[in-house]
Amino acid sequence: MSIAGLRRAVGESVRRSVSGLPREFWWLWTSTLVNRLGGFVATFMVLYLTMERGYSASYAGLVVALHGLGGVISSVGVGVMTDRLGRRPTLLISQSSTAASVALLGFMEDPAAIVAVAFLVGLTSNASRPAVQAMMADIVKPEDRVRAFSLNYWAINLGFAISSVAAGFIAEYSYLAGFLGEAAMTLACAVLIFVKLPESRPEHVLVDGKREVDVGMRTVLRDGRFMSVVGLAFLVALIFQQGFVGLPVAMGRDGFSSSDFGMIFAFNGVLIVALQIPVTRFIEHRDTRRLLVISSALAGYGFGLTAFAGSMAVYALAVCVWTLAEIVNAPTQTSLVVRLSPVHGRGRYQGMYTMSWSVAGLVAPLMSGFLIDRYGADWLWGICAVLGTVAAAGYWLLMRGLPDPSEDAKVAGVDPVGVDPSAVDPAAVRPEAAELR
Q1: Where along the chain do its domains lie?
Q2: Which of 132, 222, 230, 353 lies deepest, with the highest CB count within 10 Å?
Q3: Euclidean distance between CA atoms 437 and 435, whole angstroms
Q4: What's the whole-model pTM score?
Q5: HSE-up of residue 127 (Cα within 13 Å, Cβ side)
Q6: Among residues 209, 254, 214, which one has the least CA distance to residue 346?
């Protein structure tokens, strides 16, 4: 193929990937990108505490753990806010409070104050995720949701890749400038949401002359199929978290330098930025169960392959495998959560799903540290392979009765929700004819 032909093919692929999505989605996508471009605290928290402030590694670990605990606690509460107050107010509260708390953290010097404010940052910074995902489900047609969530995930990784590089240079100049820069970018995200994004929460409709009932947290917890998905998502998240916690420790014990790990970690980001859009074009209309089964197995076996890594080339190969799994799993999983969510309970369902990843972020460091110290890194990678196999089998068994979304739409002519009728009050899951105000 000539260079001109290749350009045309790439241009056509990009056009097909981004076409047909509503304007509101692109403003929401832009807010995600702006938010991630300002990422500093999550990337350099440990370095800031140990190198700039001179605290011990154990203290830094405590701060990071409490930051993660804040995210766990806020997930469910913000899900309720998303359904009751609305997506837009929740996003505005989350982004403005995150900007304030991040800026405040940069000025804290007392160890107890740093711990308290870091916990507050964890509470607020994680609060936007259920609202973003619920709003995206509101404004995007069911057949385009995998593509939309994939593009949003691409924006997250693109912003993170750029901010990580920029944050490194900023940290050499001033850590405080990094905190204030993140606060400014987060505040800009709030302004963008306030100016450009209308509320998208679906209106309640009348069922047999009565107003639809709200979906409570008890409904979520009693939804057996959905809670099983949350459990499987937790297993998959435990695997992916090892790229941040287990992999650098294992590479260090194998004699590789921090720059070697930096190259491998950057390779993951480059692959996501390069492959997310074309892979999405390939998977967006394919069977959800098959995609989740394959991606879960690939995640486990990709990290399992690390047990045989003795060179950068093998590490890179392992990263290729589990990064491909990540590219497929992330949008497919989020889209499945939407399908299983009652229309007026999307915030609560997304909050519970977000919590599974937050809890995995707390458990994964403990898991990797215990296994590597007690048994060696090979045990960690072997258990990752087992977890991937268990998750793949779980998805295969769990989703045997879940109809394909295209079949739902053909039968009902509405947005499929795929909820087990025995688990949820039918009045709470009745889809409305028009989801947008």
Answers
A1: 22-202, 214-425
A2: 353
A3: 7
A4: 0.78
A5: 30
A6: 214
